[in-house]
Amino acid sequence: MRDRKPRDLGRYPSHPFRSAPAPAYTPAVSATAEPAPRREVVTGEPRAARRLPGHPTQWEIDEQTTLGAAYVRSLMRSQLRAGLTAFAVLALPVVTLPLFFEALHNPTVVWIVLGFGCYPVLVLIAWWYVRTAERNERDFARLVRGRAVRDRHGAR
Amino acid sequence: MNEAYAIPAVAVVVLATVLIGGFGLRISRTTSDFYVASRSVGPGLNAAAISGEYLSAASFLGVAGLLLVHGPDMLWYPVGYTAGYLVLLVFVAAPLRRSGAYTLPDFAEGRLESRSVRRVVSILVVGAGWLYLVPQLQGAGLTLQILTGAPRWFGGALVAAVVVLAVAAGGMRSITFVQAFQYWLKLTALLVPAFFLVLAWHGDGGAPPAVDGMPWSSAGSGQPLATSRADHPLYATYGLVVATFLGTMGLPHVVVRFYTSPNGRAARRTTVAVLALIGLFYLLPPVYGWLGSLYAPELRATQDADAAVLLLPGRAVGGLGGDLLGALVAAGAFAAFLSTASGLTMAVAGVLSQDVLPARGVRHFRLATLLAMTVPLGGALLVSGVPVADAVGMAFAVSASSFCPLLVLGIWWRRLTPPGARAGLLLGGGSALVAVTLTVAGVARDGWLHTLLAWPAVWSVPVGFLAMILVSLATPDSVPPHTSATMTRLHLPESLSTRGTIPTGEPGGRP
Lengths: 156, 511
Description:
The complex is a heterodimer.
Chain A: H1 16-19, H2 56-62, H3 66-104, H4 107-145, H5 147-153
Chain B: H1 3-27, H2 31-36, H3 43-54, H4 57-70, H5 76-91, H6 93-98, H7 104-112, H8 115-148, H9 152-203, H10 233-247, H11 252-258, H12 264-282, H13 284-295, H14 308-316, H15 319-355, H16 362-382, H17 388-412, H18 418-441, H19 447-454, H20 457-474, H21 483-491, H22 494-497
Helix pairs in contact in B: 1-9, 1-15, 3-9, 3-12, 4-13, 4-15, 5-10, 5-12, 7-8, 8-9, 8-15, 8-16, 8-17, 8-18, 9-13, 9-15, 9-16, 10-17, 11-15, 13-14, 14-15, 15-16, 17-18, 17-20, 18-19, 18-20
């Protein structure tokens, strides 16, 4: 189990990830955690719509346990899958289009496709990706926090 | 083009830049303000600022000129410049913001926990930034000479002075306002004249009158602002596609912008807005390229095809209206130089003040700003033979072969090691740098060797990725000790990684 104190990176006087001021987002994963006794507060069912500072799943992520690492890996995998899908949808036409234009020899088609047609497609792919990525994060938050969040955002 | 209108137009843009920068001075107070605008820039403003910063003179003038000379294949330039943001979005945007670092070297050090990787990245960032700044200053000199007849050095010096003033005064806070303003200025400066140009073309019955003479043949002997064509156009197209698609994410002035978003989710949404804004802008240069082939076909024969955008209002509309529209276009062109140059100066100054100067803080940041601009200004004044666009393409290719592997593997691959990152940065970025330097030096003028050296991204990007992966696999003992915690931080939504306060409006946040 990792040390709960801020990690000593004294060799690097300006270690950026830790020195960057981001007061509202002090990361629990790498900064000071709550004192351990807080854990015994969570003994029963979490009450809906209440902050769960000691909820087991979140605690596992914070403490870098094996199970917590597995949670983060699953989030990374789903985000990477979304990214690779979007990239493939972009790359396939981009790889084939120059060959297609070369064979076609029709400047008008090139003007229309590259000059006007491709930009809405790019924005659509981006929009799809953002929706997917945010949904992945919401699903992950539900997994971590249990019912509290599901009750509030279940309709989405 | 009438100087009587162009000079006031440029003066107004310069004045507005200084004034808006001064406005930022009044609200910039802390170090965080200077570097990342206190991370409080919302998606709308930030997207306009990113777009304003990104659309340089190569986009404003160069794309239309290239289309005029080389035809529709050149449309891959704006498509690549835009699609680069999509690649950035899907692989980099949110984790980069969540890393919490100020600059690219910060990211490298934080992820790999290695000072030496940081140094390599710092050198590459400063080098790429200066490479990109020199052509902006040279292009400014060329444009101001064409517009007003001022000596060539004057435009570069003017841009340098204005940018140093604006950046040193208010840092990132004020630059954000300046660049958001300049995006809308650039869009207006192309959109309004384009509207009247198409009307004029319609009034001419689709057949413009014959153009007399070549009044611009002696105005500038400059190179086109974007790159010329190769002997092997298909390979060159792929080289261009790889460099622009993958290079955008590593350009120092683009990367630093993402740290100004309040959180990873906002960084993603910002990128979508950027895609829309840049796509909207790039609808216009093809109109100018196409009208240029009707109204200014003689520019094809000269080296001044970049002047097409500046020249068309006078040609197609004429009279007082043409002069006024021409002045508007001139103002937009100058805004293009100013915004890109200030973004680059900002990024280079950030790295210099953190890694070179002895202490952080506002005063050192201002000193770094001066240093960041002095070197490229000297380069622009001393070296006149370097083609503008080759240097821009060089920055994209170097970025795609060094920073792109670092960011993508650093964010998604746990087994990346400091030796692997160093090897990939040096082999990928280094080989791209050498290749384009050889091209500029004129080692190979034609044939396959020239094509391979002038468009290196097709081979140098795989070299960078392979070196990084293979060396990392060979040094498994060097995996940074806190990799797991760092990865968690990069990918975990802010709403979960906070214990106490959660920003309002976050989905998944609590009341």
